[in-house]
User: What shape does this take?
Amino acid sequence: MAGKSGRIGNILSIPVYLTTQNAARLGLTIPEITDHLPAQSSNPQIVDKTAFSMIPSIDIPRPPEQFPGAANRPRVNIILLGIETHICVLQTTLDLLRSSNASEPINIYLLVDGISSCNAGERTIALRRLENLSSKYADRSGTVTLTTSESIIFELLGDAQHEKFREISKLVKETREGTAAAVASLCDGL
Assistant: This one.
């Protein structure tokens, strides 16, 4: 799923941030992911960290709205995926919500077919908690939305007339089996 997301970032020119958790002890990110990082990206490709949240390790720019039909105020949209839902994904989401405010709200889209944990039970509890965070941070206008990779891809496109639609459609077809397997194993019961 992460390789597919990197390819989408490449096609749609969306910044991609990748962090590793203490690579010296836990290992490097696999080539199936790193090989698809956007080549034209001006941000560091891979940042090693020891903090569980990725936010202290990277500087997320505050871009204008990327989604079609957006309100007039600036809004930061972050698509998040990764392993250890109950640790790194949760703490990154909490840090993002804490930095959200009414003048620059942050929308966080969690790709449930791209989020995992070594212990499936931890993932389920973490996803429930993450889904309820929007109400806790409503005063800061931050939101958390559980979605799937395919859903967010077509939300980013907005219309079949998008100039990258054919290229994206080809990628969706190429990754259909892997996406179906991820959805079946990671989204069942949500």
